[in-house]
Amino acid sequence: MARRAKPGGETRSLSREAVLRFLAENPGRATKRDLAKAFGVKGDERYVLKDILADLQSEGVLEGGRRSYRRLGELPTVGVLEIRARDADGGLLADPVGWDEEERGPRPRFALAGTQSGPAVGIGDRVLAQLTYAEDDEGANAKVIRKLERRTARAIGVFRKTPGGGGRVEPVERRQLEYMIPPGATRGAEDGDLVEVEPAEHQRRGLPTGSIADVIGSMATERAISTIALHAHSIPHVFPDAVLTEAERAGPATMEHREDWRDLPLVTIDPRDAKDHDDAVHARPDEDPANPGGFVVIVAIADVSWYVRPGTKLDAEARLRGNSVYFPDRVVPMLPERISNDLCSLREGVDRPALAVRMVFDAQGEKRKHTFFRIMMRSHAKLAYEEAQAAIDGRENGVAPEILDTVLRPLWAAYRTLVTARSERQPLDLDLPERKILLSGEGKVDRVIVPDRLDAHRLIEEMMIQANVAAAETLERQKQSLIYRAHDAPSMAKMESLRDFLRTLELPLAKSGNLRPVHFNGILKAVRGTEHESLVNEVVLRSQSQANYSPENIGHFGLNLMRYAHFTSPIRRYADLVVHRALVKALELGPGGITREEEVELDRTAEEISQAERRAMAAERDTVDRLIAQHLAGRIEEEFVGRITGVTRAGLFVQLPAYGADGFVPISTLGRDYFHYDEAAHTLVGERTRLGYRLGDTVEVRLVEAAPLSGAMRFEMLTEARELPGTTGSFHKTRTRSRRPDRPFRAKNVAGKVRKKR
Fold it and tell me: What domains are there in the chain, each with its CATH number?
């Protein structure tokens, strides 16, 4: 019997009782290696330990074995949790992963403690945590040890019943697997329900199996498509009761710490269907004789910082969400409606608190000075873009004559001077029309439109840009920490790739190490009105870096600005709220300023809200894809005119301009030639014929498959390959990756199944 010297000379015998005692004393480290180390087991003594463990397991005293041992019925003190929800106070709640209810009893739900000081986690994340249980299965809590990768997170799908009980879950993601659900693991899911699946572990063959972890709702509802995106991207969309209670307790702001600007005829100009109005504008000629032809422009922004204070549950929820998310069928707001659509919405004829910036521009549109104020304002008119534009153009409109003469005409006159400065500044001038999906009463696609781009849009956009610049300049001057809207210059690698592409069109791009937007604008101007216009706009866009939020100022390359911070949309962007608080503190404008704790956390805050922005963009894009796939699912075999928006080694992505959604053309279906991918030229080129397809080409395709759940469409190419002058023809780099159309082709179809080409 092995004996081990303990501190102080006492020995520990390797016996059944000693092993059980060790497991009771060390529930967090009870692997076979831990046991061997604790008892000093070496050589043949390993067989003694193995026999003891085997006997205890066969007698039903001990369980486990692969990773650790524990006494029968003993609950783990450390485990993997998946964060699933929040309590009424906004705290995070998590479920244990792989919990066996038959063996351990009802699955507990743990409240996470210490998430403010620990790693940044949110709904959908998996964590390793220290677990503490409550006797009545309520009040269990956990302390996060570390955040885990999300490779094994739950899957989202639509449940379909199968004869004999159980069912299967159809995937809603293009790369997601289909799961089989055994009888007894459906959690009451009905056919057609959107569900979350807990994948079974250690499965080696056959279709993957799993159990239903949560029933989200029926796919028959009007908002089913956007619901998929919310859950697939783990976007918080239900406000905790404590957050709603805080919002409801808020009352109208007072005149404390404010100037009275209610007589100034500020107006809001927004989309016709806007529910919240967070910015208002006013302009007049500058009366200063030292500034002939100049203008005074005022931009007033809803004072969200007055209502959403640091350390409150409203603030924690806003930071968690990061921004509002806009779907065709709904908006998931960053703030509850009591704040966003009521107290902070700059309604016509109603007193509202705001932060305002007064900017003075000269006759050339250059800003001479600016000053910030905390005010009480009253919007004198609520205008839609189309109404304001019609009034200026002299067309029929509902704008009051006094608003036209005293407000709109001076605004447009000021805007014309700003256009002069903008032209001199030369921001990146990409022409990429945005599409808007209009839905029917049943939540289905009615039509897709490209709204007209009006001067009214550009006016508000330019005035908001100037206000954002003023905010960044003021905070820098006050040496106050803030979050910038940062946009880096394109990387050298992307620039080389862009030059290679432009060379195929005989378009030069300077090799200077100090490229500015003006260089790209020259390229865009050269192709305007030609067959390459959309292609070059697309490629130039892809060459740009992604904008994000950062406490470090690297400037904004696309806008060609040295200092830029988001200030004008605090109702829908947390970054703007942080900037408001920074201004309140730096300029001593009263309560609601940024705290020292917030300043210390700016790096982390910037990273979190940048991730939230990317998450929202992906969810919005996926929802549009699903809606369009659903809309076209009944039009299989119809032919469409499209444009190639992506070229890969696997095939072509083709967008239908009328709908703004992409479908895929596999390379194996393009013809009898050997097609090669030319990365520099963004082409697929036939080796034998030297004919091919290029990014931006207009083509005709036939729809052969549409999967609304995953938002995927598959096309058949009808347009013949064409001659592509100027391609690099670097086939030797890609030949081994080419597909031969006369060989069997196996690929996942849009529903995630494997099929064989016939």
Answer: 3-71 (1.10.10.10), 78-148 (2.40.50.140), 155-220 (2.40.50.140), 241-486+551-619 (no CATH), 492-544 (no CATH), 636-756 (2.40.50.140)
